[in-house]
Design a protein that fits this description.
There is one protein chain. The protein is of the alpha/beta class. It has a domain of 212 residues: Rossmann fold (3-Layer(aba) Sandwich). Helices cover 43% and strands 16% of the residues. The chain is built from eleven helices and twelve strands. Helix 3 links the parallel strand 4 and strand 5. Helix 2 packs parallel to helix 3 and helix 5 crosses helix 7. The chain is globular.
Length: 328
Amino acid sequence: MKSLVTGANGFVGSAVVRCLLTAGHEVRAFVRRGGDQRNLTKLPIETVEGDLRDITSIKRAVTGCNNLFHVAADYRLWVPNPAIMYDVNVNGTKALILAGAEVGINRMVYTSSVATLGLNSNSLPADEETPSSLATIAGHYKRSKFLAEQAVQALVREHQLPLVTVNPSTPIGPRDVKPTPTGRIVLDTLRGKMPAYVDTGLNVAHVDDIAYGHLLAYQHGKPGERYILGGDDMTLLQILQTIDDITGKPTKRRSIPVKLMLPIAHTMEIVARITKTEPRATVASIHMAKKKMFFTSAKAVRELGYQPRPAVEAIKDAIDWFRSANYC
C-alpha cells in the first residue's frame, strides 16, 4: 500500500510520514524542488520533487499511489505576492485532488486548518459547525485555506470522492526546522526575547498527535466530513509561563493592548516590503489576536478515537528539540 504525502518535509508533513511508516505504509514524499529535506533524512521513503503549480509533476506523483495525504500548503503570515499563495493553496489543491481521483486513489485525507472555522465571541471552544465566512477571516493564509477547503468540499460532492478533511489547530513539538510562527514563540521565549504578550489564546497540540489524527481520519473518517485535531486551549501568557516552568526561568512580563500593537505591525510590514523578509508580526495576525482561538476536538475523539496528550508535553518536546538542534 503506497501513500503519497505532499509537504512531506515540513513540520506536520514529516510527522505524518513517520506515523504512516510506523503503521506499515509505503510512503512517497512529494517535496518542493530545493526544499529543506532534513526532516526526511534516513527515512525509508521514495522522494519525488515537484510543485503544486506544475500539473505534470502532480500527475507523476499520484501515479501508482493508493492513498493521498495532502499536507502541503504555503504557510506564511505575510507574503510580498499573495497571488502565489492562492495559486498553491487553492488551485494547486484542486489540481492535486482531481489528479488523484483520475488515477483512482482509494482514500484521501486533506489537511485544512482551524483557520477556516469560526470563533465564538465569548471564548468558548469552537467546533466544526461554528459558522465562518470569507468576510470574517483576516490574512491571506487563512483566506486561501478557507477557499481551498470550500473548493475541496465542492469536489467531494461533485465527484463523490473518498476524501476526509482534518483541521489541525496549533502544532508544537520536535522537528520544527523553519520554525513555524508558534515555534518562533517558543524559541524567542527560550532566548529571553518575549518580555511582553497580548491577551490572546491558542489551541495547542503535539505535532505527533496531529499526525496520528491523520492516520485515524484515513482509517475511520467519513468522506465529506471534517475533524478538528487539537489539544489544550491556552492563553498566550499560559504558554509563556509553561515554558518558564519547564526551563526554571520565571520571567515578569507586561501585557500590551492589541490596539498598541497595530502600528508596530504596520511598521514591520513596511520594513518587510523593503527587506523582503517576513515580519515578526503582521496587521492580520494582530487582528486575529483580538479573539481567543479556542477549539474542541470532541468530534475527532468520538468518531476517530483521537486522544491528544497534554499540551505541556508538546511544549517540552519542542524545547528539547530546539536545544538538541542548537537553535538556542
